Amino acid sequence: MKILVTGTAGFIGSFVAKKLAQRGDIVFGIDSINDYYDVSLKYSRLSDSGFDRADVDSGKVVKSSLYPDYRFCKISLEDQLSIKSLFEQEKFDMVCHLAAQAGVRYSLTNPYAYMDSNIIGFMNILENCRHNGIKHLVFASSSSVYGLNEKMPFATTDNVDHPVSLYAATKKSNELMAHAYSHLFGIPVTGLRFFTVYGPWGRPDMAYFKFTKAIAEGKSIDVYNNGDMLRDFTYIDDIVEGVIRTIDLIPKGNPAWSGLNPDPGSSKAPYKIYNIGNNNPVKLLDFINIIEKEMGKVAQKNFLPMQPGDVYATYADVDDLAADTGYRPYTPVEEGIAKFVKWYRDYYKA
Fold it and tell me: Which end of the chain has fewer surrounding CB within 10 Å, N or C?
């Protein structure tokens, strides 16, 4: 298959594109390489896939030195003409849309960045899927859409109409926009709600990354809600496996779906939502303790109240993912953190 993967200088996108290229798909990656966090890490991810920084910055289509069927071009999702031209020239079979403006906290101070990337950018993807015969669009949603929900574990059959951050609201909007296009134009669409993804090459704005960095530098760490939180930490390899399996599973629509008792996670249209999470929430203080053990050092902790936009717990119900794809995330946090810390020490010479 010829697959467009957006966000391939990002954490999840870089892994997914590489995995697709390794299995023999023709991959085209795009990314704006914005400065939301350290761009050198983004360029390093691209370098790990065989792309030279100088070539990437030329703005031209670059071929990977490691994977002959993997190409990349620096493009912004909001660039309507460039996205349109790309689709028309390349004639993709499928699209795996992983690019987005990420982060809950950043959305409180830079809301327009989320409108540009997550709404306008996604609109450009949908329109070009519509006009170019795309066989399947898979896109990244987020566990943050569950917002104020308290029933655990979170299931895709649950209503998700009470987000607590603009980031979450844009992700819920993506799901609604995708359903409209699936219904109107028959585009097979799969949305994936990722649960607290972590691992090597991860995002520096994530808590586990900040904790590790602070401990390595002998600095204190901020622990919100006094450490009384639960997170369904999901290792990057598990996320990638879930993405790949859902790319290969094109939705056909749910014949049992009824508007009298509507299932939010499916439709009569070829539309499906899955959770991808570890299905095993971990207490925040236990998580920090695992990092401390791997680092061989106890962190000085600043206990603080809950941050705006945050939630107490996340916990993924992945039964439908397991039933439909035969896959269930399984990596223990102890194993995943050990791999992350090893990568961190190697990459930062810490």
Answer: C
